[in-house]
Amino acid sequence: MRDAVGKLLLFGATGDLSQRMLLPSLYGLHADGLLPEGLTITGTARSPQSDDEFRAFTRKALDTFLPDDRKDEAAIEGFLARLQYQALDASTIEGFDDLAAKIGDVSGGLAIFLSTAPWLFGPTIKGLQSAGLAGDNVRIGLEKPLGKDLASSREINDIVAAAFPEERTFRIDHYLGKETVQNILALRFGNSMFEPIWNARGIDHVQITISETVGLEGRAGYYDEVGALRDMVQNHMLQLLALIAMEPPARFDGTAIRDEKVKVLRSLRPIPADEVPHVTVTGQYDAGAVKGEIVKSYDEELGKDSRTETFVALKAHVDNWRWQGVPFYLRTGKRMPERRSEIVIQFKPVPHSIFAERGGMLQPNVLAIRLQPEEYVRLLVMAKQPGLDREGVRLREVPLNLSLDTEFAGTRRRIAYERLLLDLIEGDPTLFVRRDEVEAQWQWIDQIRAGWKANDVKPKGYQSGSWGPSSSIALTERDGVTWNE
Ligand code: BG6
């Protein structure tokens, strides 16, 4: 099914994700004429509201979360006219018939966006089925959390699969909707110079960092149950790793790309429980200052003592021919000094330096792919400093800089959800995560958690505004590697 649907149903329509991301994204698509003509959007949530109240709610969300230069009154009016609302208690089957009646004829196709508490998956899917909202022309987008470990993720996947076959199930990882993440594919497979050295012969190690300055952001209930490993590594970071490490797919389509990603995820080297404390570091933020602002410790923000990690760093290996012996260092944390998502590829040194006898020092090449907040690809190469070299050759690392911000300055950067919602509406699964990928991700994450449990690992405190516990520095320094800061 690769046709645009005529209707969209948003669960959790009054929630945080909807206000900040989904409604502004749908508006963005509408304003640019990208939504199918006549597509209606039905919002649903527990609280009773009329259609007009939901439109007023949406207007407020757009007002708050859209940049000023995107606000266009005529476009907003046109967008609001697409909306309607139906209250629903998804835990019981009763309300689903009314929901179906409100949506009306779905013969032109329906796309559902579901972000719900895990315990509501079962009743919601049953409700949709009983009301005729799970037929062949209905596809479903699923937002995380899709389980908290392999077993619960399988359970959810089974519940969904009973009504929606895999080709109609679209699991969202919003990192895949980011422009620069897709640019990894363009960089690797649209250029000939990287691929020949993109392996253990050419690459020394890979670093992936996602640092955030924010703390709990009012999501204590969710976050404290989950922690950084499951919130960020299980999904976004392993997806980035898979895109960096995968073999070239034969085509740009959902099957070819996901086949290659899943092979990488299945090749992640298992970490035995007794080794877990040596190759992972967990931390939890203490009080401190971030961007000049004094902030509380995690426990204080939460209002109780907790052992949930807000930082994790780890060393992974992909056990296949291409990556033998190449460590992948991953780290992510809240309350770090800056917001940054970045992949750093450190190449091997040249096999022999002709400059050594003349005092010239070489640094191995580094490729930095900055995903946010800036968007660039930067290759550090060696250059000779101008001069007569009487006291030896002086060499320096200089950047070959591809700034995507500058190069594509005239092109608006879309919210990741704009791309993903449009792909869901049009039925393109390429940037959604397949069941086998999610399960391979969980399998690898579960053994790390089992190792923490077996060794009673507690997160180490780190000052807010720092790069995490000092043991995360030791994790790489042991191998002679320094985090890119
Ligand atoms: C979400 C996590 O998946 O990603 C959040 O649940 C995190 O904790 C967010 O803040 C980060 O996304 P982005 O797009 O701001 O890097």
From TrEMBL:
Pathway: Carbohydrate degradation; pentose phosphate pathway; D-ribulose 5-phosphate from D-glucose 6-phosphate (oxidative stage): step 1/3. NADP(+) binds at R46, K144. Substrate binds at H174, K178, E212, D231, K334. Keywords: Carbohydrate metabolism, Glucose metabolism, NADP, Oxidoreductase. One of its GO terms (molecular function) is NADP binding. InterPro entries: G6P_DH (IPR001282), G6P_DH_AS (IPR019796), G6P_DH_C (IPR022675), G6P_DH_NAD-bd (IPR022674), NAD(P)-bd_dom_sf (IPR036291). Residues 10-183 form the Glucose-6-phosphate dehydrogenase NAD-binding domain. It holds the Pfam family G6PD_N. It catalyses: D-glucose 6-phosphate + NADP(+) = 6-phospho-D-glucono-1,5-lactone + NADPH + H(+). GO terms for biological process: glucose metabolic process; pentose-phosphate shunt, oxidative branch. Its EC number is 1.1.1.49. GO terms for cellular component: cytosol. Residues 185-484 form the Glucose-6-phosphate dehydrogenase C-terminal domain. The active site is at H236. Belongs to the glucose-6-phosphate dehydrogenase family. Catalyzes the oxidation of glucose 6-phosphate to 6-phosphogluconolactone. This is Glucose-6-phosphate 1-dehydrogenase. It comes from Sphingomonas spermidinifaciens.
